[in-house]
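Tokens as discussed.
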């Protein structure tokens, strides 16, 4: 009978990249059936419950507690696996730190060592993230805020302060961006070109940027905003700043604006702002209803494939192929009753739901 062992480390914060790699390393150990390595947020505890790894010892943890759970063939194997955590983390740090001579202890010392740096990437527990971001803005840096668990009020404060300084705050919970061809966070290597992106959806940004690359186009920048940016409270503060930056960028000829389902009032405001730009803007707000496909310089699309194709066509150098919306039934069995899909991002799942809603009597997510 399988045994579950747990370990909780209070205040031991790691970002999601480290957590995923550590979880994979534990799960690959001999005799280990499954492993969970997460910060103790409510959403993460729900994931543990869904995988059968949530036990009573874990239920009282805090958001900045590191939760380690191992299910193994016996108690000794599970305990031995947990005992290897420090060794696995140290090995990763050793690989990453090879060749590094200077590890700054503060943003200010890092700035003095690299005075020309324009960006600060922040991955700390949520309760510290706003303070570190304020310090970065004080130093005149753009902020890529990977951390989550930052309050909406703090987000509004940071983005308002950044706008006053002519700076960007991408996030919180911003997982991906591309700046001058350099990927931040989770990013794909794509061709440089003349299409700029603003995205309130990490998977949307990745999907459209990759499709642009596959169609022969390229990007100047792909700017993430954080998933709450087009909410009613935040009101598109970063999206507006990002659009302005791309409007003033001489290398950007076409702008793509992508979002997970936005608040209608925030969407209306940002679209009104986009209509004032001199460059064409391809818009894909998942689930956003509009009577017209084209309004002034705005071109509305409903799928990420269409978005990429439209951007490449507007860029002028290439002619994008027609994207077929037909769904082939050849792969389905005559008696098949269900169609199921697993998606790595909520925006991708919602796009599929909206498409399938035209073909199937009922779709659930």
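Sequence:
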């Amino acid at each position: 009978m399988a045994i579950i062992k747990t370990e909780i480390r209070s205040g031991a914060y790691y970002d999601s990249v480290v957590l995923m790699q550590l979880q994979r390393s534990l799960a690959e150990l001999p005799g280990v059936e499954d492993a969970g390595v997460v910060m103790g947020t409510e959403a993460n505890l729900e994931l543990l419950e869904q995988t059968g790894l949530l036990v009573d010892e874990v239920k009282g943890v805090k958001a900045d507690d590191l939760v380690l759970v191992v299910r193994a063939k016996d108690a000794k194997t599970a305990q031995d696996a947990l005992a290897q955590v420090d060794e696995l983390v140290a090995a990763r740090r050793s690989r990453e730190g090879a060749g590094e001579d200077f590890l700054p202890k503060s943003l200010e010392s890092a700035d003095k060592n690299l005075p020309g740096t324009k960006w600060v990437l922040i991955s700390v527990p949520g309760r510290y993230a706003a303070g570190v971001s304020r310090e970065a803005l004080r130093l005149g840096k753009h902020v890529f805020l990977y951390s989550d668990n930052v309050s909406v009020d703090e987000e509004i404060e940071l983005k308002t302060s950044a706008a006053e300084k002519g700076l960007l705050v991408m996030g919180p919970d911003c997982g991906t961006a591309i700046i001058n061809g350099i990927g931040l966070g989770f990013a794909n290597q794509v061709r440089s070109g003349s299409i700029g992106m603003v995205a309130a959806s990490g998977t949307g940004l990745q999907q459209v940027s990759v499709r642009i690359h596959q169609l022969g186009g390229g990007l100047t920048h792909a700017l993430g905003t954080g998933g709450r940016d087009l909410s009613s409270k935040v009101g598109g503060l970063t999206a507006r700043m990002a659009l302005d930056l791309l409007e003033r960028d001489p290398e950007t000829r076409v702008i793509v604006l992508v979002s997970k389902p936005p608040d209608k009032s925030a969407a209306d405001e940002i679209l009104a702002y986009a209509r004032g730009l001199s460059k064409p803007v391809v818009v894909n707000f998942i689930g956003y209803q509009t009577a017209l496909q084209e309004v002034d310089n705005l071109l509305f699309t409903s799928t990420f494939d269409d978005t990429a194709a439209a951007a490449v066509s507007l860029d002028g150098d290439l002619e994008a192929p027609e994207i077929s919306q037909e769904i082939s039934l050849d792969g389905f069995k005559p008696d098949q009753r269900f169609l199921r899909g697993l998606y790595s991002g909520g925006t991708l799942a919602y796009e599929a739901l909206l498409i399938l809603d035209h073909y199937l009597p009922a779709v659930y997510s």
